[in-house]
TrEMBL record:
Entry keywords, A to Z: Apoptosis, Phagocytosis, SH3-binding
PANTHER family, A to Z: ENGULFMENT AND CELL MOTILITY, ENGULFMENT AND CELL MOTILITY PROTEIN 3
Entry protein name: Engulfment and cell motility 3
Task of the protein: Involved in cytoskeletal rearrangements required for phagocytosis of apoptotic cells and cell motility. Acts in association with DOCK1 and CRK. Was initially proposed to be required in complex with DOCK1 to activate Rac Rho small GTPases. May enhance the guanine nucleotide exchange factor (GEF) activity of DOCK1.
UniProt cross-references to InterPro entries, sorted A to Z: ARM-like, ARM-type_fold, ELMO_ARM, ELMO_dom, ELMO_domain-containing, PH-like_dom_sf, PH_domain
Keyword Transmembrane: no
A biological process from GO: phagocytosis
Gene name tied to this protein: ELMO3
Domain (ELMO): residue spans on this chain: 307-480
Any Pfam family matching the protein: ELMO_ARM
Length: 719
């Protein structure tokens, strides 16, 4: 029969006695249980004893926590908390240094227990610890144990930090500020100050005044990791509890004192690996630093501010200095205004007659203007190249610098969580943040040039602006996830992650998501390819049989003459001939010219085509080159030249002609359609396997049965 739920089987030990195995009835008063245990060992005064866990933190068992006792727990009969508190309270006042040191050491260990802590504090034990520190006669081990015990007792929140005496605080501050002090004492002193800072404004101001930032920076440069950690903890506590103005002043001073270099050299590149707690503090410091940008980020531009208007004019002059300055004095006011409007339009402002309107949205507010000015001052050649290069492009293909800068600044603020409160547990900081001054601005300078590069790779127009920004954002986040150690490395990696690579990664991830990279699925994909390619070939030949209307283009000028070309239904002859305007489809009988497919020798595209090499072909733009193809035929190599009406028709015809020549289809349209067909076919084939994991290897074939007697005999039975 199982024991009742209120009964647990435990072992109880005592020094010098045989352990007891008892069934503890949780409904029985704890004092009665202790009395029974004492009676077995013939111990009087049972009220002077208590039960305590042997393992872990050795917590005292009380009526409030006894429910946590599990079957098989090992407890110890020991002195009760009140008796132990009384004994240690007496021991720490002893004039015998050995007794005093042992008492303080045990006090530091027992103070983690809330029951003991309450008993010790009730005996005014904290006052005795204050006296040990304030008198200052004890140093080294005794002082370390005293501070440790004090910290553990204060953790229980029985006493407010505001009750600390000025003399005690003064001593703690002196331990932090004195060079050559015992490291363990300094660590504990820093922890005490860290706990004082958030408890009240008065204590914050006291610690901020007495422990200088220079002293904390000194502690960050030591090799003792624990001392570094406690110094960083106090620094972070001061920054988090400071007002915005105080925090800005403190961060400005730390910047002047090169805290970034101290962290980079003594913490990040220390010989010992960094712990999770330090990683969290560095994350918080990074977050605090970036959040200094929040004020500018949330401040819209004031069109009446002379300083802000001058920054806008600085951007314009920096980009168009040579164009505007020489003639500026001779221009009328109206003409100067017209020039300004034109130049602000070239800079990429949407409201070029009043560019301040573009910066009225907050976020990113004035932070976007700050970034543009920083880029123009620190990367003047790149800035001028960006603006002038795009201002010389067609309107639809120019990458607007100002609009890009505003949206990119907003994207960077979101990626780096500018203006968001610090997480209490996060440890994700960027190593390169502490390796570079003006991190946000320098990152912007790299990313705005990346945006221009990606814009060109995508051959984007104004309608594609959001799409380009999305790709740039993905390039940035993917590169940041690689945790580059420096901005130079970030720049190298983010520029290597071009638009083509982004498309490839997206495709790979999509395939992973659909489980199409499993070995059996890849094998199925390869088996399906020939069938689907044959389907595409048939479609291409059917399209050639339908025919296409082409325009004739000479080397002198564009002709309005039209001609039609189509493949015979038996795929053996190409028929072509001139047609009248308005004809959409010409029957084969109306096309007088013929080229047997067997006579076709070669397919040429782009600049290889004869009509692209003719005199005057330099006038052909890239759009025409992308649509040009030719076929050479007959022994004497005659040419039939084509200019496809669209890129789609170019792909269909070049693929179809390659099929007729027995070659592979090479157009981008073929690959795109093959991927679509493969994806659709795979989804249909794997529909019944949804949410079923596909193994990489097939299951093993079972051994053949020992006999085949179960087989049905299909031989005809006699009637």
């Amino acid at each position: 029969m199982p024991p009742p739920k209120d009964v647990v089987k435990i072992a109880i030990q005592m020094m010098g006695a045989i352990p007891q195995l008892i069934e503890l009835n949780q409904t029985k008063p704890l004092a009665a249980v202790v009395k029974e245990v004492c009676d077995v060992w013939n111990l009087g005064n049972a009220e002077h004893y208590a039960l305590q866990y042997v393992d872990g933190q050795q917590t005292y068992i009380t009526e409030s926590n006894r429910a946590e006792i599990k079957n098989g727990s090992i407890l110890r009969l020991t002195t009760s908390p009140d008796q132990e508190a009384e004994r240690l309270h007496s021991g720490i006042r002893s004039h015998n240094l050995d007794v005093k040191a042992d008492s303080l050491k045990k006090l530091a260990n027992l103070s983690r227990d809330i029951t003991f802590a309450q008993e010790f504090i009730n005996r005014n034990g904290l006052k005795q610890l204050f006296l040990i520190v304030e008198e200052g006669n004890d140093i080294g081990e005794i002082l370390a144990h005293t501070l440790k015990a004090f910290m553990e007792l204060m953790e229980h929140d029985f006493v407010s930090w505001e009750t600390l005496s000025p003399a005690f605080i003064k001593k703690i501050v002196r331990y932090v500020n004195t060079g050559g002090m015992d490291a363990s004492v300094q660590q504990l002193s820093l922890s005490i100050l860290e706990n004082m800072v958030p408890s009240s404004r008065l204590l914050f101001e006291l610690v901020k005044r007495e422990v200088t930032l220079d002293r904390l920076l000194t502690h960050l440069q030591v090799t003792n990791q624990q001392l570094q950690l406690k110094a960083m903890a106090l620094l972070i506590a001061l920054l988090l509890n400071a007002s915005d103005a105080e925090r800005r002043d403190m961060m400005g001073y730390l910047g002047e004192r090169n805290i970034r270099q101290f962290i980079h050299k003594n913490i990040i590149h220390a010989s010992e690996p960094m712990g999770d707690e330090m990683a969290h503090y560095l994350y918080v410091l990074q977050s605090i630093t970036l959040n200094l940008l929040e004020r500018r980020m949330r401040t819209p531009m004031d069109p009446y501010s002379q300083e802000q208007r001058e920054l806008l004019q600085f951007l314009r002059h920096s980009a168009f200095e040579l164009e505007s300055e020489p003639s500026a004095g001779s221009l009328s006011a109206e003409r100067r205004r017209s020039v300004c409007v034109t130049e602000f339009r070239k800079l990429g402002f949407q409201n070029y007659s009043n560019p301040a309107q573009d910066l009225h949205r907050a976020p990113p507010g004035l932070l976007a203007l700050d970034n543009m000015v920083y880029f123009s001052r620190h990367c003047p050649s790149a800035y001028s190249r960006f603006v002038l290069e795009n201002s010389s492009r067609d309107d639809k293909h120019e990458c607007p610098f100002a609009r890009s800068s505003i949206q990119l600044t907003l994207a960077l603020c979101e990626i780096l969580h500018v203006g968001e409160p610090c997480s209490e547990t996060a440890q994700a900081f960027y190593l390169m943040f502490f390796g570079q001054d003006h991190f946000f601005q320098e990152l912007f300078c790299i990313c705005i040039q990346l945006q221009n590069k990606t814009w060109k790779e995508m051959r984007a127009t104004q309608e594609d602006f959001d799409k380009v920004l999305q790709v740039v954002r993905e390039q940035i986040t993917r590169t940041l996830s690689l945790k580059p150690t420096s901005l130079e490395l970030f720049k190298t990696r983010v520029n290597a992650l071009n638009y083509s690579e982004i498309l490839r990664l997206r495709q790979t991830e999509r395939m992973h998501q659909e489980e199409t990279l499993a070995v059996p699925v890849l094998e199925l994909r390869e088996r399906l390819k020939p069938e689907l390619l044959q389907l595409i070939r048939q479609q291409r030949l059917l399209r050639l049989c339908e025919g296409t209307l082409f325009r004739k283009i000479s080397s002198r000028r564009r002709q309005d003459k039209l001609w039609y070309c189509r493949l015979s239904p038996n795929h053996k002859v190409l028929h072509y001939g001139d047609v009248e305007q308005g004809v959409q489809s010409a029957p084969i009988e109306s096309l007088p010219e013929k080229i047997p497919v067997a006579d076709i020798k070669e397919l040429l595209v782009g600049r290889e085509c004869p009509h692209m090499k003719e005199k005057g072909s330099g006038k052909h733009n890239k759009d025409v080159l992308d649509l040009a193809f030719s076929i050479s035929y007959d022994v004497e190599e005659y040419y039939l030249n084509f200019i496809a009406p669209t890129r789609y028709e170019f792909c269909l015809w070049t693929d179809g002609l390659n099929v007729l020549l027995g070659r592979e289809m090479t157009s981008e349209r073929t690959q795109s359609e093959l991927d679509i067909l493969l994806s659709m076919e795979l989804k249909l084939r794997l529909l019944d396997l949804e949410n079923i994991s596909i193994p990489d290897a097939p299951p093993p074939v079972p051994n053949p049965p020992s006999n085949l007697n179960f087989c049905y005999d299909f031989s005809p039975h006699e009637q």
